[in-house]
Design goal:
alpha+beta, 6-stranded antiparallel barrel, Thrombin, subunit H
Length: 107
C-alpha cells in the first residue's frame, strides 16, 4: 500500500546542516513541504532517528526544525518535521511560497 502525502513537496536545493547528538554534517535539502523534508547527506541515520536540521533559506536567513527519519536510501533520507518554532515555520512557509512562484515563472 502506498504512502500518500498530505502536502505537496517543493524542490528547493537549499544547503543545510543535520545534527544527531554531537555529530553534525552538511546536507542538501532536496525538497520540503510544511510537514516533511527530503535531504541528501553523509550523516548516518536510520528510520526512527531524531535529527535536528538547519536549512539556509537564503544567505544569512536560516530556520531550524526537529525531524524524525521515516525513510532512508543512502545518501538520501526522508523525514517528518516534528517540531519547529512558530517564527521559523512562518519563514519556511514564506520561503516555500517564493520558491513555488519562482518555479512557476520558469515554465
Amino acid at each position: 500500500m502506498g504512502f500518500k502525502r498530505k502536502l505537496s513537496r517543493v524542490d528547493v536545493g537549499w544547503s543545510g546542516r543535520l545534527r544527531r547528538g554531537r555529530l553534525t554534517a552538511p546536507c542538501t535539502v532536496l525538497d520540503v513541504s510544511e510537514s516533511g523534508v527530503r535531504v541528501e547527506s553523509r550523516l548516518y541515520a536510520k528510520s526512527g532517528d531524531a535529527l535536528q536540521l538547519t536549512m539556509e533559506l537564503q544567505p544569512g536567513k536560516s530556520v531550524t526544525c526537529e525531524l524524525e527519519v521515516v525513510h532512508v536510501r543512502s545518501p538520501k533520507l526522508g523525514a517528518k518535521i516534528v517540531s519547529m518554532s512558530p517564527e521559523d515555520r512562518e519563514q519556511l512557509t514564506h520561503a516555500l511560497d517564493d520558491q513555488v512562484q519562482r518555479n512557476f515563472s520558469r515554465h
